[in-house]
Design brief:
Keywords: Signal. The protein has 164 residues and is mainly β. It has one domain: Beta Barrel (Lipocalin), CATH 2.40.128.20. 10% of the residues lie in helices and 62% in strands. The longest helix has 17 residues. It is globular and about 40 Å long. The termini are far apart.
Length: 164
Amino acid sequence: MKNLIILLFLMPVVLMAQDNSLTIFKSLENYTWKAEGTWGDGSKFKQEISLKFSLDNKIVIVESLGFTNKEQTEFGLRNHGIRQYDEKLKKIRFWEFDVFGNLTEGIVESEEKNLKYMYDYGGTFVTEMWIYKDEKTYDFIVGVYENGEWTQKFLETEFIGKRK
């Protein structure tokens, strides 16, 4: 009986640890992720991303370097992001605050080792997908993703991770 009580007490703790949805970001931790490419409109894309877990693994904090002016001549701290599991929605939410005063927010889902960010951007429902290639490489696509297919792509490149 005593063992049963201990087991019943520990079971929720074990289930909570298994249910921490933020573990989908664990493979990105301890790396700096770099990508370069060209947007569909011809403008340059260059980004460096690093992340860390905080508040007892309840949030993920993301820092992004990128172009900090519209002319794309200055490179520096561009975004601060937060990822958090929303208990009410039962989904991972994200917020990205940028140097231009904008806020982008949406939902993150995982498909095996792939990450899918979904959000409304000026009336267009955009998806950013990190597609796992190996532990240090992800293909990265930004576009419109519907019913498991890309109907439009705005950017296609790859992120390469370098251990910190």
